[in-house]
Design a protein that fits this description.
The protein has six helices and nine strands. By secondary structure, the protein is of the alpha+beta class. The chain has two domains: 3-94, no CATH class; 97-157, no CATH class. Strands 1, 2, 3 and 4 form a four-stranded antiparallel sheet that branches.
Amino acid sequence: MWKILKCLTISKVSFIIKVSKTKATEKTKNIGLCFPFKKAITKGNEKMRKTMSIYDFRDEMEDDFSYEACEIIFDALEDLDEDLEFDRVAVRCEYNESTTSEIFEDYAKHTWDEDFIQEYENAEQDEKDDMIEAFLENETWLLGSFEEDSERVFIYQAF
């Protein structure tokens, strides 16, 4: 389990500076924005925490992500650490929900060579989905995917 060593907030956006995999090892890794789960409610110097359920998380994120995407993000972040502070803006900025064709147009098309692009364009939809999945796994943290209207939708960390 990752342990937050230092968290910095600049303009209401929280950044994890370093995290440690276990107490026994001193390996550290920069991983970007803070993640959700504990919603801090502050009044003056006092702070109260509310533990969020999947239902609370969906209610908070319903304008930004689909029902399925909320479940995938919640499950992935819950596996990462149970004691995370909720930051709606950070979650929205840190994670994307995109279809196979959107990812191809926005990212892959600009990084793949012409032969690979041609192979993608000639492929069946299942093969396209697999190619985009491999691309995302190579480039970022792929949280999961689901089917919608005969095309796969991927949930991934922005890169």
